[in-house]
Write a structure and sequence with these properties.
Chain lengths: ~160, ~160
C-alpha cells in the first residue's frame, strides 16, 4: 500500500478527466478515500431481440453509442463506425475512460456490446442500461470483468 | 436446429470475409460441417511488465495492433488510436471479424487488450500471443468469453 503511494503514479497518472484517479478517489461529499485493486471495469453485454432497422443503420447506431458514452458522463475522444454489406454495423467510441464497442447482427436482432471504463467517475452500467433501452432489447445479459488487477501489499499479522 | 437452418440467415448473413459463416464451417481438408452456438469469441488479456517506451508510443502501439490483426488473418476495416497526456495510448482496430482494442498504462507497464473475433477463420489467441510477444510482456493472463449465444433446439428424450 505504502509502496504504491510512494510511487506517486497512481494518483498523477490519470487518463480520465476530472478529479478521479486510478486507485484513489473521494467519495461524494466527503474526504474519505478508499482503494481498489483494479484499474477498470469491463462489461460485456449481449442484447437480443433488437430492431433490425436500428441495428442496420450506421448513423443510428453511432448516435446511440456516442450518447451512451455522454449519458454515463464519459469524455469522447474518437469515434469510428463501419457498415457491412449486406447488413451489420461495427463501431467503437474511444473515451478518456477507455471505450464502448458494438457489433450488430441485424438479421438476428442481436448486438454484442462492451463498455470498458477506468476510474470511478463513469459507471459502465449506466451506458449499458442506456443502450439496452435505446436498442429496445427484448433480452439482455451482461457480465462485468475487472481489468488490470494489481495486488496490494498486505500487512503481516502474527509474525 | 432445423429451425435455424430453415431461417437461412446463419449461413448467408456473413460479415467475415472468405468462405466462413457464423455457425457452419468446413473443417480443414474435408466436407465435415459442425455447429457452434456462439457467434464469436472475446479474449480479454492483461499484459503486465511491458516496456514503458513501447506502451507510450502511439505509432508503435498502432503498428503492433494492426500487425496482430493481420497475423491472425483478419481483414482490417478501420483503425483509430489516441495518445493521452502525460502518458497512455488507447486504440482500436475494427476488423471484418469484430475488433482488437488496447488501453495502455505505460507507467505501470500494463496493457489491457481485448480481441473479439466472429467466425472460425480467425483465432483471437493468435493475435493475443503475437501482442504478448511484441509488447514483451513479462506476465500475461487472459480469459475467453463466448459472445452471442443462441440456444439450439434439443431433441426430447424419454417423453
Amino acid at each position: 500500500m505504502l509502496q504504491f503511494i510512494s510511487m506517486g503514479i497512481w494518483v498523477t497518472g490519470t487518463r480520465v478527466s476530472g478529479s478521479d484517479s486510478f486507485l484513489f478517489w473521494q467519495t461524494k461529499g466527503g474526504n474519505d478515500y478508499k482503494m481498489s485493486n483494479s484499474l477498470g471495469r469491463h462489461v460485456l453485454a449481449e442484447m437480443y431481440g433488437c430492431s433490425f432497422d436500428t441495428l442496420n443503420d450506421r448513423e443510428k447506431v453511432e448516435t446511440i453509442m456516442v450518447n451512451a458514452a455522454l449519458e454515463a458522463g464519459a469524455e469522447v475522444r474518437e469515434v469510428v463506425f463501419h457498415k457491412f454489406s449486406p447488413q451489420g454495423v461495427s463501431g467503437v467510441v474511444v473515451i478518456s475512460e477507455s471505450h464502448l464497442a458494438i457489433h450488430t447482427w441485424p438479421e438476428l436482432g442481436y448486438a454484442a456490446v462492451d463498455v470498458f471504463t477506468c476510474g470511478d467517475r463513469v459507471n459502465p452500467w449506466d451506458a449499458c442500461n442506456y443502450l439496452t433501452d435505446k436498442f429496445q432489447a427484448g433480452h439482455m445479459t451482461a457480465t462485468e470483468m475487472k481489468r488490470g488487477i494489481f495486488e496490494t501489499q498486505k500487512e503481516a499479522v502474527n509474525l
